[in-house]
Structure formats: structure tokens, C-alpha cells
Amino acid sequence: MDLTRAGRFVAATAAGLFLVGGTVAAHATVGAPVDGQMTLQAPVTPIAEFAQWFYSYVTYIIIAITLFVLGLMGYVIVRFNEKANPEPSKFTHNTTVEVLWTVIPIFILIAIGIPSFRLLFQQYEYPKPDVVIKSVGNAWYWDHVYPDEDELTVTQYMVTDEDLLKANIGDERYDEAYGELEGLELHRATFRDAAQYWAKYPAQRQLATDNPIAVPVNKNVHVLVTSNDVIHGWAIPAFASRTQAVPGRTTATWFRATKKGAFYGQCAVLCGTRHAFMPIEIHVVDEPVYQQWLGLVKDDKYDEAKKLLYDSLPEGSKQVAMQNKTNN
To answer: Rounded to whole angstroms, how far apart are CA atoms 217 and 214?
Structure first.
């Protein structure tokens, strides 16, 4: 490898690492993944903002170390190959170099460790809650319980292609069109025919739930997480919130969302055959909307409560939902 080729290789590697190191790309959006997205979802909580800053901070340190080592390797290959250096030196120790390669990594670890501990303290120092939710994992759906609202329980199942087709064409026509199909053939047919209805639906396919839940904006929300059967994982990427749902135990996380909109998560632990179909849908809304939603759910008016949340979505969130529906 000559110097020109080595230089090009280093430049290409640096460009690639720089692209990977970015936190929010042009595709990144609030609340949900985007088709083709390579970076993290846009943060909407103080902890998520700091976590993503820390992610980028460590990435740039890694880039610097990688480029230094890559450059050093290129220099050694060119400067000390057999042709350029036919008679190698025979020394075995260099005190200065040994001190440097011991001390410099210590300072690098300190530079990483200080913000790392700060992030951990923020995640596990729980402020006084304004809202408490108990999330219970089941095979394969979620129960979200509001203990301070007389144990109000909202059960979330994923909205499937079958659900959407039946809601739009009716059970009888669905049975006539798909009753004799099964397996992959049924999946392909419902996926194809439901696309037109997903294009009008205000949430993303594979992430939409039948009963989204709500929390007020700029309020501290404590989430107590457990499971009724196997180990699940409660995770909302835009909140930087993730914890295990373990049978017989209660774990906890918290968040304070500073932006309104619909935010999606999923079970983050491989829990069984329908692990990929356990989405979580949380809407962050103004306090009056939250109180109105609570009242509707308490009166078992789930359809009205769902419509209220989707009608309350900020325009940007609606556009995100529209552009992502048929991509996943």
C-alpha cells in the first residue's frame, strides 16, 4: 500500500465513521422510526437528549482513536516495510512510549466515565411523579394501569392488517375474500389490500395499537414495569427509557416528555412467537386533553378517546405517520 492509497483509505474510513457518529440525520423524526433511517430517533426528554449527546461524544472519541491507530498502522507499513527499512532496529523498550500508552488511556476513560456516571444518576434519581403508570407485559400485549385513577387499565394490542380490513369492509366481506387463504398467502393478500387503508390511518403499521395511552406534556411520569408470564422489555427510544418486565418483580423507569406527539416503542426482549407484535403507543398531550382522555376511557368510550388523541396530534407528527405507513 503506497501513501496515496493509504491516504484515500483513511479518508474514506473517516467519512464513514463521521456519518455513523451523527445523532440526528435528515431522516430522523419525532416519535417513530423512518424507513432507511441510520441514526437515533430525535430525543424528546432531557435524559434522551443527554444520552444522545453522550452517544455522539463517545463516538467522536472512538473516531479519533480509530483514525490515530489507522494512521499509525499506515505509517508503520510504509516507513518500516522490508524495502524501506531492510535492517530493523533491535531495541525492546521505550520508557516514554510505555508511560504515554498507559497514561493517555486513563485520561480517555476518565473523560468517558464522568458524563457516563452523570447520565446514570439522571436515569436513576427519580423526581416526584406527576403521573404513575404500571405497565404489565403479557404474551403478547401490554396492560397499562393508572394506579392513581382507581386502577384504570388500558390494554394495548397491535392493530393488524386483518383488524384494519375488517374495520373498513366488515367481517362478512373479509371472510368472503380471505376465508379460504392461510399462511403466507393470507399474509400477502391482507398486506396488499390493507395498504390503501394504512395510507389514511394516523399511525404506523406494525406500531399502531388499538388503545393508545396518554400522558401530559412536561410532567414527570414514573413507569412501574412487570410481567404476567415471561420476560418482556418496555422500551421507548425517543424517551431513552428501557427496562425489563420480569415476572414476580417490579422494575421502574421515568421520563418527562417536553414535546407533544405520538411516541412508539416495542417489547425489547425476545419473548416468544409474537415478540415483534407488542408495540407501545404513548401520546404526549396538553393537560386538558389528558384529563378529557381519562374521562372518556373511564366511561369505556375507547373509540372516542382514540379519536381525541389522533385529532390532538401536532401537524408534524401527522405528516410523519402519513409518510411511514406502508414502509414497514
So the answer is: 9
* Burial of 315 per CB tally in 10 Å (0-12, 13-18, 19+): exposed
The alpha carbon of residue 197 and the mean position of all alpha carbons in its chain are separated, in whole angstroms, by 26
Tens digits of residue pLDDT in 29-74: 468 888 787 888 889 999 999 999 999 999 999 999 999 999 999 9
β-pairing, 213-216 vs 152-156, is unpaired
Residues 6+ apart with CB under 8 A from 313: 202, 260, 261, 262, 283, 321
What is the C-alpha separation between 252 and 243, in angstroms, rounded? 7
Q: How far is residue 207's CA from residue 209's CA, in Å, rounded to a whole number?
A: 6
pTM: predicted TM-score of the whole model, two decimal places:
0.80
Q: Residue holding cell 474514506? A: 12
Provide the 10 A C-beta neighbour count for residue 180. 9
- How far is it, in rounded angstroms, from Cα 266 to Cα 237? 9
Longest dimension (CA), the chain: 88
Strands 213-216 and 279-285: parallel
Tens of pLDDT, residues 251-264: 999 999 999 999 99
Where is 185: in which H helix or E strand? helix 183-198
Distance, first Cα to last Cα, the chain: 43
How many beta carbons lie within 10 A of that of residue 84, not counting itself? 9
Following DSSP, what letter does each residue of 100-127 receive, concatenated?
Answer: HHHHHHHHHHHHHHHHHHHHHHHHHSPP
